[in-house]
Amino acid sequence: MREFTIGKNDAGQRLDRFIAKNLPLLPPALLQKYIRLKRVKVNGKGSKRDVRLAAGDVLQLYINDEFFDKPSEENMFLTVFQPRLEIIYEDENLLLVDKRPGMVVHADETEKVNTLINHIQAYLYQKKEWNPKQEHAFAPALCNRIDRNTGGIVIAAKNAEALRTINEKIKSHELEKSYLCVTVGRPRPAEGRVEGFLLKDEAKKQVSFYRRPIPGGKSAITLYQTLETRGELSLVECRLLTGRTHQIRVSMAELGCPLLGDGKYGNGTVNKRYHETRQALYSYRLGFAFSTDATPLNYLRGRVFTVEKVPFREKYFPRL
């Protein structure tokens, strides 16, 4: 237990804001919980979070000692932000997380802190499943990536063996990933295969589609099936046989049916009409189709995980 006596310079502050300022390592949600549980007392009594402190008030904080430390590189995962994760599945080896559109998976030139991997590492640190002080090299890591404006299932490995195994299974195509998307137009035929070669312009961060091999181009194969059409929009399921940058976006545009909201390969006029600024694309289903040994993850063989609530499906193709 620690005590604080409020001086005249701190008088008038809200209780929760005073504590947050003085204990920067204490996650906001945990602070509110401690106040509700009366582990924070003012003059010996439990108090509401918005009470205004007066000079001479004595705070008694029944809070773990580590939250009184000063922020440092070693303890940054205690706080900075409260982890926000939509967990689909978790065990001792991995996490399956539903990444919502708008969040980057790793730090880039636009975002350094609010990244998916930081949220995952903070979550595991706070659960005491990972401590960077006790690890020489390994840190929880993502096994696959999704574009900032695309949503869906991301796999995070909790240990080096799980990371190695999942990476091997991705390379040998023993994971089945299915995507939902909304296209502008009706794909012809309604079900089929788009096969070609993709060449990425690194400067423009844009990909071009070619029907024939081209120097530097990578083969790309996408299977698709139209699930429903309403007006000019179609709900389409895609499955990747290869995993290339912007593969579905470029392939559907090649069919003449670009994704709704796609600013690079789509129809700007239609996007504005629907007020969509992000591509309607979601990695909504993941299957562990292991055909070879997957130790230590063999228990996942044959399991399939699905995101139930895909925002644009609910919006444009609500199920009865």
CATH class of the largest domain: Alpha Beta
Uncertain runs: none
Q: Characterize the biggest β-sheet.
A: 11 strands, mixed
Cα distance spanning the termini? 55 Å
**CATH architectural designation of the largest domain:** 2-Layer Sandwich
Mean model confidence by pLDDT: 90
Task: Label the structural class.
Answer: alpha+beta
Number of helices: 7
CATH topology of the largest domain: Pseudouridine synthase
- How large a portion of the residues is in β-strands, by DSSP E? 25-35%
Shape, principal axes of CA atoms:
elongated
Q: How many domains, as an integer?
A: 3
Radius of gyration: 25 Å
Q: Give the CATH superfamily of the largest domain.
A: Pseudouridine synthase
Order of helices and strands: EHHEEEEEHEEHEEEEEHHEEH
Number of E-state strands? 15
Helix content: 10-25%
Describe the structure.
By secondary structure, this protein is of the alpha+beta class. The mean pLDDT is 90. The protein is elongated and about 80 Å long. A hairpin with a 2-residue loop joins β2 and β3 (45-46). It is 19% helix and 28% strand. The protein has 3 domains: 2-68, Structural Genomics Hypothetical 15.5 Kd Protein In mrcA-pckA Intergenic Region, Chain A, CATH 3.10.290; 76-171, Pseudouridine synthase (2-Layer Sandwich), CATH 3.30.2350.10; 175-316, Pseudouridine synthase. It is built from 7 helices and 15 strands. Strands 5, 6, 7, 8, 9, 10, 11, 12, 13, 14 and 15 form an 11-stranded mixed beta sheet that branches. Strands 1-4-2-3 form a 4-stranded antiparallel beta sheet.
